[in-house]
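Quick look at the format.
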Amino acid sequence: MPAMRLVDEKYPGTAVERMLASRERVRSLGEELNGEWESVRQKLLWAAGLRDLKNVRPGARCRELAGMGYTGHAFNDNNHCDATTMLGDVAHNENEEGESRVKGIAIGNRLGPGIEIASLPELGEGGSWSTCTNGCHLDPPQDVAHIQFKSRIAFKLVWCPPSFESFVLVDDDGAFLNSGTPTGQLPPLMQRRLNFELVKGSKYAIEASRVGAQ
């Protein structure tokens, strides 16, 4: 008899088992998070349940890349820093026009095909994507995960002020999961600063500020 699916009543689009498995992967990481940035980013993709897919059709536009499962942008800019684990039922949800639209995100924002291509099946039911974090400073969060997919995040990457050389990984409640100080060619400093600005004043900024002050 198949196991009963765990359901998050507040955010029913959450793939709960997949989310919990993702957080366990995050907690299992040690010195790997202090290595060369691209290697660290690949570990973050693994923890999120995502494949490292950078080889796509040359000349493809940004929206087309997402539909092909491209993950080269994941955790690599200021915004695509939420590891979201959603049920297959909602993976094809779009950002619909109206009062519930995610502000600053294109109408449509069709990610379903890319989610199917990029998601690692061994992490559990559902799929994963590196969704946009903008809107998470509001309470409750008004970002892609919580609005478009009606899902909690497995984890969020936040760069730590004032130097923005280290990052923390926090869960949907802003609780600390892990941290790292990578080396090599990091995302541009402006992107790392803007990443923190997107969470500033929210529960997601607390651990980044604490670690950055040490």
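Next, a different chain entirely:
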Amino acid sequence: MASTAVEGQTPNPEPSQPEERAEHNLPPRSYADAVSNGPQENDQIEGRIGVGSGAKEHAAVNGSVQPPPRTVNGQNPKQPDEEKVVYEKHVNHAGEILTSIKPSAGYEDSLKHNGKTAPREKKHNRPPKRQDELASGRRAGAGWETSAIRWAPLNVPLQRRLQTLAVLWHTTTIPLFLSTFFLLCAIPLTWPLLIPYLIYTLVISEEATNGTLSRRSQWMRGSKFWSLFASYFPARLHRTIELEPTRKYIFGYHPHGIISHGAFAAFATEALGFSDLYPGITNTLLTLDTNFRVPFYRDYALAMGLASVSRESIENILCKGGLNGEGMGRAVTIVIGGARESLGAKPHSLRLVLKSRKGFIKLAIRTGADLVPVLAFGENELYDVIDSVQHPWIHKSQMLIKKLMGFTVPLFHARGIFNYDVGLLPYRRAVNVVVGRPIRVVQQGTKDNNVDDKYLDQVHKEYVAELVRLWDGYKDLFAQDRHGELEIVD
């Protein structure tokens, strides 16, 4: 189809109509290029839609162009605003031109909805749901925010992690050594070593009771590892008066608590500086004789300077060795109260089973050792104990175990390794071990080991009075959260 040139206008050497470009083997031309270059041909003949000479007024300005108005039979109908199309040109770093349609004014606002996604268009023919008609399930993970268990954060300092490791080691030494022993028993190659070892420890060895302290290792007691253990709570040792190194002593530790962590830190290690506070005195912490029947653990306990709490062991320690070969400068620490007291070791209270406990008083009179009361503020706060009074069947079971095995285990819990509410590790609560004044004891006893009952009661009364004095003197300093006063029961 031929096109008629407009008078006074030079014909376009490159046709723009698709039919003419096809006749000259030219590729189709885009509408945007045709508009940007202006009209190149005459108006179309009657009945066709063409681009008039007025299209130059709609040429692109600053990269944005609008298509010329359509003419039908020479007339320009009015075009609604919503049908106007605006083009945008974008030039990249390589000079390539990208042409796109400019979006509507509400597009940018739709992208900013909720900061990420565009909102859905409302369907006007359907009203929104009422709020009371919306039913939703629980939100996943919401329970962690209100959980009763408080989990330890990941950014805990290294020193606190090492402190927890030290306490974990101390509380699990017996099961760890037992597990190691049974593991070795499963290996036949170790039997030639294990059998003689068991015969020696169970039949021959008397190291836990002979009082020589030959297996005591000052290096293990003074290790920096125990400083981590003591600083976990933290624990402190307080002296009220100096002790003469020319005498011998029996330290009575109160309360028993669950595991007596304060007694171990103060008297089985040098973490709290016992040798600095009481120079010239060699103190030995006493524990159950059954602990020295546990393979491997007995050797560990002997190296830490522990000994049996039996009568034979106490008399040997306080009557042998020392500065004069008769126990001068030696001391033992006995955790008074035993299993019965541990069953009532409730936090923020102090209930001592002491009225009928006179065996250690009698040993002090027989050996001529002075009695030194020790009160550990905070020992009962390290664990939460289930009240056996409210559960009679639990109490009966515990007393049956005590009768058969010589000890019992209270039902307790504290914190774990990675949480603060569930586990068998003690709480991080301060333990202040206060050592009282010594009660001078006159040695008595005949060949049949009889002790004057009146003198026994007198010394016991003085001992209890010193404990009460320690409580009254330091309760406002170390027991500010107490729920009651000191109780001494049978």
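The longest helix spans residues 453-478.

See the schema section for token definitions.
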